[in-house]
Amino acid sequence: MLKSIFSPDNPVFRFFIKIGYCWWLNILWLATSLPIITIGASTTALIYSCSKLHSDDGYPTVNFFHSFKENFKQATAIWLIYLAAGALLAVSLIFWNRSGMPGGLVLQGLAWALTLFYVMSLSYVFAIQSKFVNPVSRTILYSFVLPLKNLKETALILISIGAVVYFNVTTVFAVNFWTMNLGIGLLTYLLTVFYINVFNRYIPKQEEPAPLSEEEAERAVDEAADNLKKMFEERAEAEAAADEGNNQA
């Protein structure tokens, strides 16, 4: 009974193992995000590690630090760009909200529209960085294109992130504590489902070779046997010629 409960094939046991991995990746993300400037690299590593969890590929800690190291420069550059852009958008929203200038509402609406595109891009950019090798400019470009071409997944991603942000802003401290200790890892694990669905549409699938017919298989075996026989005959002839040369000497 106990053996079946703790079997690696038990779905309940596997579920709690995944929860534990998400908790550990959450801790790694927090620890590597503390300098603030490294949030881009740590977020890229978190997404990469969570995507690997879905296929049980590798070890979470190894995957995390592999991605963190490989993407550190580009992910940090991307994070600084988005941090600066976000600050400008925040200032713009506050300014047009408080100004009584003619046309202020129109410009405020434009600022909100730009903010929406900014959030959509931000929700994709580090996932793209974790999956593909591109220059920073191309990664940012794709982060604007993919959300618009995959509106279903984009809506689910934004709703998921928005729900977590909403409950953390409007509810008690316990929710903040839960989010910081486990929720970010679980949320990212959920988001990687959507990222994988999107990215698979743009990754060419490798076609498996068609199975050989019985006749083709027999022909291949015969050809291999003939080649092997010929190789041994040539080797025997070479050895015989070498022995004859030695005898003459």
How is this fold's topology laid out?
Elements: H1 2-5, H2 11-33, H3 39-54, H4 60-70, H5 72-98, H6 104-131, H7 136-149, H8 151-170, H9 173-200, H10 214-248
Task: Offer a concise description of the structure.
The chain is mostly helical and 249 residues long.
Describe the 3D structure.
This protein is an all-alpha fold and 249 residues long. The protein folds into two domains: 2-200, no CATH class; 212-249. The chain is built from ten helices and no strands. It has helices spanning 2-5, 11-33, 39-54, 60-70, 72-98, 104-131, 136-149, 151-170, 173-200, 214-248. 22% of the residues are buried.
Keywords, separated by commas or semicolons:
mainly alpha; 10 helices; elongated
User: Spans of 5+ residues with little confidence (pLDDT < 50)?
Assistant: none
Would you list the SSEs in sequence order as H and E? HHHHHHHHHH
Q: Give the biggest beta sheet.
A: none
Report the principal-axis shape.
Answer: elongated
Number of domains: 2
Distance between the termini: 79 Å
